[in-house]
Structures are given as structure tokens and as C-alpha cells.
Amino acid sequence: MDKTKFNLAEAVVDIPDGATVMIGGFGGAGAPIELIHSLLERFRATGHPKHLTLVNNNAGNGHVGLGALIECGTVKRLICSFPRSVDSRAFSQKYRAKEIELELVPQGTFAERIRAGGAGIPAFYTPTALGTDLARNKPVAEFDGRMYLQERWLKADFALIKAEVGDEHGNLTYRMAGRNFNPLMAMAAQCTVAQVRRIVPAGRIDPETVVTPGIFVTRVVEVSDPQQEEQLNRAGAIF
Amino acid sequence: MINKLSNAQIAWRAAQDIEDGVYVNLGIGFPELVARFQPAGREAVFHTENGVLGFGAAPPSGAEHWDLINAGKKAITLKPGAAFFHHADSFAMVRGGHLDVAILGAYQVAENGDLANWSTGPNDVPAVGGAMDLVHGAKRVAVVTEHVTKHGQPKLVRRCSMPLTGVACVNRIYTSLAVIDIESSRFVLREKLPAVSLDELQSVTAAELKIDGTVVDLTVPGDVS
């Protein structure tokens, strides 16, 4: 059992055309910038993978990370809750030019759909969005005198996530609010790739503090000094 | 010309209704100001939907941790007793009825409590975030807003013309002119600026303002600006 024998290129080499890829992070917090850039480098070198469906809460900021991935044209469809940021031009230009499809999902529903995907729950009911434009064509049902909207699970072929410490078994801990969607996406994908600041031998993470148990994780890649989207943008970086 | 309240003054008034020991979520932008005016002797715990309970003010420039941000993607600090959690737990707190108060901004609020605050129409890139979850999860949903748009159009209306965030979800509205409750699908006037007459207030409100008991003078300390 050793899930740590991958470099950044190997970790994303088998993502196929048309794949659904979940990418962790909320804005720049917990965003796996190096994994995204590795995927982008592969696309630039080979033209693959193309026609991706991307699942992320946002739509990138500036010309690094998710923004750069959207800008390069490999993303066909985006499922998110909030595709606006200080500089989300990469997405908004493609959206206005109808070069990218958008499925907008309320944030709590988005999180729960991913959790449900990982937990084997095909659908659930929520009061969120009832009576709004985002409820169109969705079944409703009454429970204990109140109406609820049916929402379906969300699953992926791959998840690219960021964590703080990982071990050979794939057990993960996170850093502050960088946790966000990462543990949920780890559960919801066929193949979960985690970049971590530090890989440690099995036994070094106290089992009491494991947030994502290794059963949900396929590959662990060490990126010891990860870049933060916010700092890259403040420096005017373009990837 | 009426001397209406500034956003900070509206936020101050909203903060006076936040009790000790409650869990509060403040929307991005204007509602975030409410945190600056917590009354002395009361401690509210602030929730941000991206996975933090118990956060405090922004850190000094240069001391930011970019994995420690709020829903508006701004750097924050932690207070003693803070906790981190993932997004599904965060919205379990919201949807599960554990959050006491949510304070949001608004494009329009209807007299039946409908709120429109996420989309200005088809020409906009739509973005909803957590607003639709918050309005049906928090025990009390309040709105802070200008009383009219920058073009002078009423924001308090009979029925929202803009896309809804939630149906019949708002309990109280703090505006630049008044404090208004929504009860039995009606606007009930609780407080108004003393310099504004009832007729003037009604003329910039596109649904009937009910009076139920005394209308209190809406006053804000002079040092809140």
C-alpha cells in the first residue's frame, strides 16, 4: 500500500477526453494550483484531455489555476455556484460567447450533491431554491407539511484536491478553510488525486485527526511549497 | 432632501438586534459591516459558509493566510473557540436550522417576504453562492438595504420583478429610512427616521406599510458613520 509514487505529470496523465473532473477549493483557498497547472501543461503539449466537465464552486480568478484552465479551452461545461470573482474574465468571455456551458447550483445544494455522490445517495430533498428559477424541471414533494425540491447526486471520474499532510495510505489532513469542498470531492470521484504539502509514513498522522480516510484517495503527490492563487494574482502572474 | 442612513448606520441598527450567544451568517459586502457594531457585552459567533465558525476581523496587510478567508474571499482571523469544517457540514448548519440569524443584501423584497438578491436578469453572468440555502435555513432572515435603488425606484415592493432567491423567507428589513417587519405577508413599520413623514416613507415604498402599535424613532449614535 503506497499511494505516493506519483509526480505531478503522472498524477493527471490518464484523465480522458470528456471526463468529469472535480477540483477542490473555494476561491484560492484549498485550490490545487499545481495539479491544475499539470493538467493544463498536458493539454498544451498533447491537446488532451478536451471537452471536460469541471466541477468547482467558482470559475477561476485571473490567469492562473482554474482561470487559466478555462481560458485554454479544454472546459466544455462548468458546474458551480458562483462564477464571479475579482477577475473572472476568462469564464465570462467564454460564457458570453457561448463557448462554455454553465450549470448554476446553490452552494449548499452543490456541496450536498457531491457528498451524496460519494455516499451512494442518488437523490435528496432540500428547501433550497424552491420557487426560484433554479428549481425548474425538478420534482418537488411534501414532507411534514412543507415542500422540498429533489436534487440528484453529483459524481466525477477524477477529483483533484489539495490537503496539508498525506500518508502512504492516502489519509489526509487539511489547512484551515482550505478544507472546504476537498473532503467531499475526495469521496465523489472514481480516482482522487491529492496534492499535499507533506507526505509522511503511515502511522505519523494521528488517526484521531484524519479528516479524509485513505479509502477515498487514489494518489498523493507532494508539493512542498504550493502556490496560492491570491498571491499569484497579486503578482500579476499568467500561466 | 432626506438625510438617510449610511450603510454603516444601517449595519449598526441591524447589529443591535443580535443577541448574546447566537450564530450569525453575514452576506458578502454590505452585510459584513454588521460585525463591526456588536454591542458591548454580547458575543455572537460568526459563520462563513466556506467552513469557519468564530472568525474575527481582517489581519494586517502582509499577515494574511490565503487558506483562511471568508465567503467574500477576503482574509480573516480566528477568535478563541473557532472551528473548521467542510462544506457539507457548513450547509448542514444552515439547512439544519442551527444558524440563528442570516443577514443579506437585496435587490428587492416583497411584502410576502420574497427576496430577490442574486440575478439582475439574463444579461448578467448568473452567480448564486449560498444565498438560496441561507434564506431557508436560518431561524431569522434579515435584509440590510437602501430604501430605494440608485435610480430612486422602490426596493420594497408588492411582488418581486427580479429572479427570486427565496419565497416568503425574509423576517425583517433594515433600510436607510426605516425598520420594517414582515408579518402575515405584510410590511409592518416598526421604526422610521424622525425626519421622514409616514406619507414620504409610503411614497418610496411600493406596497402598503401597516402600522401595528407605536412607530419608534430610528436613531443612530452620531459617531457611527
UniProtKB/TrEMBL annotation, chain A:
InterPro entries membership: 3-oxoacid_CoA-transf_A, CoA_trans_fam_I, CoA_transf_BS, NagB/RpiA_transferase-like
Pfam families the UniProt entry points to: CoA_trans
Official protein name in the record: 3-oxoadipate CoA-transferase subunit A
Similarity comment: family membership: Belongs to the 3-oxoacid CoA-transferase subunit A family.
SMART domains given in the database record: CoA_trans (SM00882)
Source organism per UniProt: Bradyrhizobium iriomotense
Keywords in alphabetical order: Transferase
Superkingdom assignment: Bacteria
Automatic annotation (TrEMBL), chain B:
InterPro entries referenced in this protein's UniProt entry, alphabetically: 3-oxoacid_CoA-transf_B, CoA_trans_fam_I, NagB/RpiA_transferase-like
The keyword Transferase is assigned to this record: yes
Top-rank taxon: Bacteria
Keywords: Transferase
Pfam family for this entry, one: CoA_trans
Protein family per UniProt: Belongs to the 3-oxoacid CoA-transferase subunit B family.
Protein name: 3-oxoadipate CoA-transferase subunit B
Organism, as annotated: Bradyrhizobium iriomotense
Gene that this sequence comes from: pcaJ_2
